[in-house]
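Re: weekly structure request thread

Next one in the queue (176 aa):
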Amino acid sequence: MNCIITAWANHESELRNYLRRQMHDTALAEDLLQETFLKALAQGSRFCQLENSRAWLFRVAKNRLIDYRRTHKRLVEIPDDLAEPSPAEPPVVDDLTQCLPRVLKELSAQDSEVITLCDIEGITQAEYATLKGLTPAGAKSRIQRARKRLKQQLKQACQVRYDESGKVCGFTPRPT
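Done, posted below.
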C-alpha cells in the first residue's frame, strides 16, 4: 500500500492538471482523479509491481476521460417547428456536362486525354504515369496544367463563374 501512496504523492498534481486541461471543468476533473486513485487502490499489491506507475496512472486517467466523454455526449435539442429542407437541386457544376464535350475537343489532344483518363474515367495519376512512361511528378504536373487550361477554356467558352471559394456558381451553356 505504501507504493500506491508514494506514487500518488508524486503524480497527483500532474494528473490533476492534465484532467483539468482536458475537461475544462474542475469538479469533473476532481471526480476523474478520484476514480483513477480508486483504480490504483483496487490493484493492491499488483500496483507495486508496475515498472512505471506514472504511465499506468496516466493511462487510467486518460481511459476514464475517454469513458466519460463517450457516455456524456452533448446533445442539442431540435425545435419541433424546424422546417423541412427543400429538395436539393443538383450543384451547378453538374450541369457543366453540357459544355464539357465541346471544350474538351478544343483543348490539345494531350490535355484532353489526361483529363478524360484521370478525371472522367478515374484512373490514378500513378497509373497514368505508368501508361505514358512518365515519373509520378511528371504525371501530376501534366494533369495540373491540363486542369488549369480546362478551367480557362470553360471560363472563356461557357462563361463559367466562380464564387469566392472557387466553386462553380453559374455558367452560360454553349451549343455544341
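The radius of gyration is 30 Å. The chain has nine helices and two strands.
Next request, please.
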